[in-house]
Amino acid sequence: MSWNVTEYCVIQIARAELNLDEVNRLRQFIETMVDEGKNKIIIDFSDLESISSIGIGNLIMISSKVKKSGGNLKLIGVRDEIARVFKRTKFEQIAQVHLMLQ
Fold it and tell me: From CA 30, how far away is CA 38, in angstroms rounded?
C-alpha cells in the first residue's frame, strides 16, 4: 500500500451559512497561510448551504491573493445552489469549483 501526501491545505466549512465575521476570519486565515508559503488551498463546502455576496467578494480576494503567490484555490463539495451563484457571478472562472457528489 502506498500513500500520496500533497502540499494542499484543506479547510472545511462546517456551517450551513457563513456570517460576516466568519468570512473575514476565513479570509484572514488563508491570507496568513499564503504569507507563510502555503498557497495550495482546498476549501470543502460540503456543509455550506448558502453564500452571500460578501462571501463571494471575500472568496474573490482570497483567490486573487492565492494566484498572485503562484498557488491555486479549489472549492470542493459545492452544492448545486451555490454552484449556480458561482456561475452567475463568473466566480468559476477564477477558481476551480467541484460539485458535491450525490
Answer: 9
Residue 74 near residue 95, CB atoms below 8 Å: yes
20 neighbors 54 (Cβ within 8 angstroms): yes
Q: Domains of the chain, with CATH numbers?
A: 9-99 (3.30.750.24)
- Beta-bridged to residue 9, according to DSSP, are 41
Indicate the pTM of the whole model.
0.86
- Per-residue pLDDT tens listing for the chain (102 residues): 555 556 788 999 988 888 888 889 999 999 999 999 999 999 999 999 988 888 999 999 999 999 999 999 999 999 999 999 999 989 888 888 988 765
Backbone angles phi, psi at 87, to 5 degrees: -65, -45
- Cell 503562484 belongs to 70
How many residues belong to the chain? 102
